[in-house]
TrEMBL record:
Species name: Massilia rubra
Family (UniProt): Belongs to the alpha-IPM synthase/homocitrate synthase family. LeuA type 2 subfamily.
Pathway(s) of this molecule: Amino-acid biosynthesis; L-leucine biosynthesis; L-leucine from 3-methyl-2-oxobutanoate: step 1/4
Residues annotated to bind Mg(2+): D41, H245, H247, N281
Subcellular location: Cytoplasm
Residues of the Pyruvate carboxyltransferase domain: 32-306
Broad class of the protein's primary localization: cytoplasm
UniProt-listed Pfam families: HMGL-like (PF00682), IPMS_D2 (PF22615), LeuA_dimer (PF08502)
Record-given protein name: 2-isopropylmalate synthase
GO molecular function terms attached to this record: 2-isopropylmalate synthase activity
Length: 561
């Protein structure tokens, strides 16, 4: 089956008639007021809503992160939600600087129960909503604009009357024209003005007007236009907090929220990691960390993102996607060779407390409490940089550049053959079998050196080797130990390059040596040796290179025959 022509079933979202729009030139220089609706919009969208214990755990985590406004439920919907709000209040679990929000439809009995649930809180916001878009007016309610306005106005009057009876609580009020983004702007303004006319907010006691994209139906620039239009035209603007509540149906909730802030929104409602109805609410983590990477502190603390993710996954019973911005398992991982190379160079050059300049990584993983361990992983798409990085990070082996190139072919062959990721341990095992463990035909057994500066060849050496299992004693002299060792072997060896470094320190320190040499007329090849004695390590490296050359030559001969 083919996708049908959509033009008779769907139509383009109309643009907003907004002259001289300001928002495209604005930048976000401070964080909005954040409101978490995880325990309400997030919870109502779960396959299994949270138990009271999980809700409490989630609430405490939100407080720890730094959320000052938390929508704790829809208390008239269920006894569980009502009891949870009462528990928070009666057990004095709400910190002084945190305000709880309780949501209700604009219906008499639901409003009464909602206010009851929050009585006694230090501060609480009653959040009233009704849907206002044409499709709701027509399909759900069968009502005119006037009747829909009356639902909002009568609900606001009732909230005002009820909260007056409980002056011990500092009451705030939030009104949402649900489905705002698909509503005619003049009607949204009309209904919000009618509500604020009843509530009578002041600059010192503001009312929240929350303008949701209940279902995201347009590009983010259209939403921004809608917000700027409202921000310009709403009555009593200086007494209002304009809030946005983007959903993610088109996958652009984060962009919508960001452009909406540029367009005048003061507050954002969303959920951690974008949980929520259908495709979710806007993700507060991404929004906050996007700000952080622009040099603006979001006022929320995600410095241990894995701990936050763990609580959210356990409470929501939903996994966070491995590629989720900032938090997914794979977002600080590079598989492809050129990325690994650039990241490795970036890390090497990045100085503490300077501007972050590591290619491909928009943020320092350490700022989220993530380690660098997972940054580079190796599969068939990887190059030398990745495997060299892992060998160095995990095993302290710092391979010279030309050895990296040579060794990457061995890893590539394994990755290609298996078609899967090669873990650091496996890379190390391949390195050991390719270089350190090359013990045939020659294996090192022992050596003894005599230094005699009066001699033309100041270093004399006795070596004992195993050659195809038979013991072999050799003597030689040279300018230094390696020269003497090579001379003692009596082979046509040309030493091209030599590197050494220590691994670890103190009594357990070891030395790693890498030599590149040519045997007879063969190609240059590397060998590597490791030992607690640096001279022994260098002899082992020479034998490793010689053995690799001889094995290669034997194989070539076998193929030729
Ligand atoms: C976009 C959002 O996320 S909004 C939040 C949505 N969240 C939830 O709905 C979760 C909790 N809700 C519930 O548990 C239930 O809906 C309750 C308890 C609130 C109400 O349950 P019920 O009384 O059975 O009503 P029901 O859920 O069927 O709601 C539909 C009725 O409410 C009316 N209604 C819906 N929203 C509103 C509103 N905001 N204001 C006034 N009336 C409303 C509808 O017109 C319909 O009325 P009708 O039955 O006369 O046709
Ligand atoms: C009730 C409002 C805030 C809502 O959840 C929505 O419009 O998505």
């Amino acid at each position: 089956m083919m996708l049908q022509n959509p033009s008779s079933k769907y139509r383009a979202f109309p643009p907003v008639n907004l002259s001289a729009r300001q928002w495209p030139d604005n930048a976000i220089t401070r964080p909005p007021i954040w409101m978490s609706t995880d325990l309400r919009d997030g919870n109502q969208a779960l396959i299994e809503p949270m138990s009271p214990e999980k809700k409490l755990r989630f609430f405490e985590m939100l407080v720890k992160i730094g959320l000052k406004e938390i929508e704790v439920g829809f208390p008239s919907a269920s006894q569980t939600d009502f009891d949870f709000v009462r528990k928070l209040i009666d057990e004095d679990r709400i910190p002084e600087d945190v305000t709880i929000i309780v949501l209700t439809q604009s219906r008499d009995e639901l409003i009464r129960r909602t206010v009851d649930s929050a009585v006694g809180a230090r501060r609480a916001i009653v959040h009233l909503y009704n849907s206002v878009a044409p499709v709701f007016r027509k399909v759900v309610f069968g009502m005119t604009r006037e009747q829909i306005t009356e639902i909002a106005v009568s609900g606001t009057k009732l909230v005002k009357e009820l909260v007056k009876q409980h002056p011990q609580t500092d009451w705030g009020f939030e009104y949402t024209p649900e489905s705002f983004s698909t509503t005619e702007l003049d009607f949204s303004k009309h209904i919000c003005d009618a509500v604020s006319d009843i509530w009578q907010p002041t600059p010192h006691n503001k009312m929240i007007v929350n303008l949701p994209s209940t279902v995201e139906c347009s590009t983010p620039n259209v939403y921004a236009d809608q917000i700027e239009w409202m921000s310009r035209k709403l009555a009593r603007r200086d007494s209002l907090i304009i809030s946005v509540h983007p959903h993610n149906d088109r996958g652009t909730a984060v962009a919508s929220a960001e452009l909406a802030i540029m367009a005048g929104a003061d507050r954002v409602e969303g959920c951690l990691f974008g949980n929520g109805e259908r495709t979710g609410n806007v993700d507060l983590v991404t929004l906050a960390m996007n700000l952080y990477t622009q040099g603006v502190h979001p006022g929320l603390d995600f410095s241990d993102i894995d701990a936050v993710r763990q609580v959210v996954e356990e409470c929501n019973q939903l996994p966070v996607h491995p590629r989720h911005p900032y938090a997914g398992d794979l977002v600080f991982t590079a598989f492809s060779g050129s990325h690994q190379d650039a990241i490795k160079k970036g890390f090497a050059q990045q100085k503490p407390n300077t501007l972050w300049e590591v290619p491909y990584l928009p943020i320092d993983p350490a700022d989220l409490g993530r380690s660098y361990d997972a940054v580079i992983r190796v599969n068939s798409q990887s190059g030398k940089g990745g495997m060299a990085y892992l060998l160095e990070q995990e095993f302290g082996l710092s391979l010279p550049r030309r050895l990296q190139i040579e060794f990457s072919r061995a890893v590539q062959a394994v990755a290609d053959a298996s078609g899967r990721e090669i873990a650091a341990k496996e890379i190390h095992a391949i390195f050991c079998s390719e270089y350190f463990d090359q013990a045939s035909p020659y294996a090192y057994s022992a050596h003894k050196m005599v230094e005699d500066s009066s001699n033309d060849e100041p270093v004399q050496i006795d070596i004992t080797l195993a050659h195809r299992q038979a013991s072999l004693s050799l003597q030689g002299g040279g300018n230094g130990p390696i020269d003497a060792f090579v001379n003692a072997l009596g082979l046509d060896i040309k030493l091209m390059d030599y590197h050494e470094h220590a691994i670890g320190s103190g009594a357990n320190a070891k030395a790693a040596c890498y030599v590149e040499l040519r045997l007879e007329n063969g190609p240059t090849m590397f060998g590597a040796g490791i030992d607690s004695n640096i001279v022994t390590a260098s002899f082992k490296a020479v034998l490793s290179a010689v053995n690799r050359q001889l094995v290669r030559a034997e194989k070539e001969l076998a193929v030729a025959q």
